[in-house]
Specification:
This protein is of the alpha/beta class. The radius of gyration is 24 Å and the shape is elongated. α6 packs antiparallel against α7. The protein folds into 2 domains: 187 residues, 3-Layer(aba) Sandwich (Carbamate kinase), CATH 3.40.1160; 149 residues, Aminopeptidase, CATH 3.40.630.30. Helices cover 36% and strands 23% of the residues. The relative contact order is 0.09.
């Protein structure tokens, strides 16, 4: 008699943290923090433990070797070691993280980010009590690509953080793919959530819009759930969510980060743009416009006469109007849209349409 195959272990539901941990798996991250920040290292140690459990190594860069040793439990490598990368590599034979101490006499930003460049790290988190950048109205700037950073540096001569911004620019130019600017308390949110807590600086935006593949369904489903919870998307039955995923497309930043999603659902001679949602971090970065253009191109290729969208959000409505849609009544929307639709939500719904040549 054949033995039964072992019962599969339950799979942990998809989560934002899981998405980022999967991205970080097998990599080495850099974290630069002043000695003052490391005197109360609990938030850092919690993140390091999560990374270690994920087979992600970390290099913590600071100005005080003694503080690094107390925080990490091992001796720090001097940044001026002629064989710095080899010394850090040896430290990883003992544990999943290593400390690197830079000279106090050097400018910390230049020295710490210089260590990241020497080690060939692809991502560095800069810990700063002020956290990410802020606009004039005090709202947080979540995402800045290199060309935007250059403009900020040119416009920011004499401002308090201009030196740090210059060093981040130099670091990206030298090949480090991303630098995050965050508070120590916000470190976990910055690394493990879509919204983040600080500012992510990236060399290139590299937005690519393409149909969703099977491996994209989990993160896309998570985004749909978020959009519903925030009130931007209508709740859908599971089979309707599957329809959105099968007909869905996503905007990917640097080929990895799913920054926004949407779907084109054929309804007679028209196409509905459904479940359009952009992550908070990328709002204002043109992601929504990329998704709209992709949907319009696909609709035209399919021979549809128009595309339409429906929303209860004034902000979403303004976005569609800015992308060539006009407000219409329900009679200009295919009747199949309303089959089984919630009457209460329909009363609050605003419809928009864009005719195709």
């Amino acid at each position: 008699m054949k033995s039964r195959p072992p019962r599969p272990q339950p799979v942990e539901p998809f989560s934002e943290k899981g998405f980022y941990l999967d991205e970080f798996h097998g990599r080495t991250l850099g974290i630069a923090a002043s000695a003052a920040d490391l005197r109360a290292p609990a938030p850092l140690l919690a993140v390091l433990a999560e990374l270690a459990a994920n087979d992600t190594r970390a290099v913590v860069i600071s100005t005080d070797a003694a503080v690094l040793r107390r925080a990490l439990g091992s001796a720090a490598v001097p940044a001026d070691d002629a064989r710095l990368p080899a010394a850090v590599w040896r430290a990883f034979a003992v544990g999943p993280w290593a400390g690197v101490a830079v000279r106090r006499t050097e400018g910390f930003a230049a020295a710490a980010l210089g260590v990241a460049i020497r080690l060939g790290l692809s991502k560095v988190v800069w810990i700063d009590p002020e956290g990410g950048l802020r606009r004039a109205d005090a709202t947080r700037v979540s995402f800045v690509e290199l060309d935007e950073l250059r403009a900020l540096v040119r416009a920011g001569e004499g401002t308090e953080r201009i030196g740090l911004l210059r060093e981040i620019e130099r670091t990206l130019d030298a090949g480090v793919a991303a630098v995050n600017l965050s508070t120590l308390e916000g470190l976990a949110d910055e690394l493990f959530t879509y919204a983040g807590s600080g500012t992510l600086f990236s060399r290139k935006r590299y937005v690519e819009v393409r149909p969703l593949g099977l491996d994209d369904y989990d993160p896309a489903n998570d985004l749909i759930t978020r959009g519903v919870a925030e009130g931007y998307l209508a709740p859908r039955m599971p089979e309707d969510v599957e329809t959105v995923l099968v007909n869905g497309f996503g905007a990917f930043v640097e080929g990895v980060h799913l920054a926004g999603i949407g779907a084109l659902l054929a309804r007679g001679s028209g196409g509905e743009i459904a479940s359009l949602y952009t992550l908070t971090r990328y709002i204002g970065g043109g992601i929504g416009g990329h998704l709209i253009r992709f949907a319009v191109e696909r609709a035209a290729q399919a021979g549809l006469r128009f595309v339409f969208a429906c929303t209860t959000s004034e902000r979403v409505m303004a976005f569609f109007e800015a992308n060539g849609f006009r407000a219409v009544g329900p009679d200009e929307i295919p009747e199949t849209k309303w089959d089984g639709y919630d009457p209460d939500r329909r009363e609050r719904l605003r419809c928009l349409r864009r005719d195709l040549p």
